[in-house]
Amino acid sequence: MAPAIATVVVDNASTDRTLPLLRSMSGVRVIANVENAGFATAANQGVRESSAEFLLLLNPDVRLLTEVDSLVEAASEHGLAAGKLMNDKGQDQRGFTVRRFPTPGALILELFGLNRLWPSNPVNRSYRCLDRDLNHAGPVEQPAGAFLMFRRDVWERLGGFDEDFCPVWFEDVDFCRRAAAAGFRIEYVPSVAGEHRGGHSVRQLSEARRSEYWCDSLLTYAFKHFRLLGYQAVCLSVVLTSVPRMVAGIIRDRNLSPVGSCTRIIRFAGRRLVFPRAKPTSATTPRQDHKDGWPLETR
3-class SS at 164? Predict the structure, then answer.
């Protein structure tokens, strides 16, 4: 007999018709946050609300295409499991579905835009698993948090998702890295698939704001997981690449709004560069900038 499915949806202060629609559905437990709590906080809320042994983290822009029983089996054995993500044309989302843990070098190339200009460079090929056949099952380091199953005991042992990553980005990478360090394995199961539209919520943010939040979360991750010199190198790269991004933003947006964002990025990245051993606090106040909620489906 298939296990019962309980669905928990965490709405992060959405302003559209999401809440009335959800509340009209039977069998759905809705948590309505009065402000945007961020992805990590919402994920932890959803897990706490559920009593399920196996939990499937599912983004609102992912539509399941198959049953997930094989994920349950893999998570039961290894602790965590993930399926394949495809776009709306049925193409595998290579470079996103699974990745290896980022190194300082991979993030520095990302900041300087070299991974976009030369996507086949060896560092990027390794980081984005471009050398992997996505039709083959097996262990992976970092599947996308948009489609991730884990056992409750894994989440409990890790203390949940780190809510210092706010509003979004790198909280799933950090969770997977801590799970691996704790001895758990993440199994990739390509027979389980989902259609991923990508960026449904974050597209509501300006490019400047997205850059600000991404850099903040990136540096939070680097502080936790890189050695001192690697962390400082990433901090310096954030500072050095901020001005070119600002100029590009001014040209793109035809206004000076990117200047404020660039100034904030340089300020918090520079402070972390000068005082690298000081635990960083959140450099952003994202609560109402990001309007759309992040649902979670638990099993």
Answer: coil
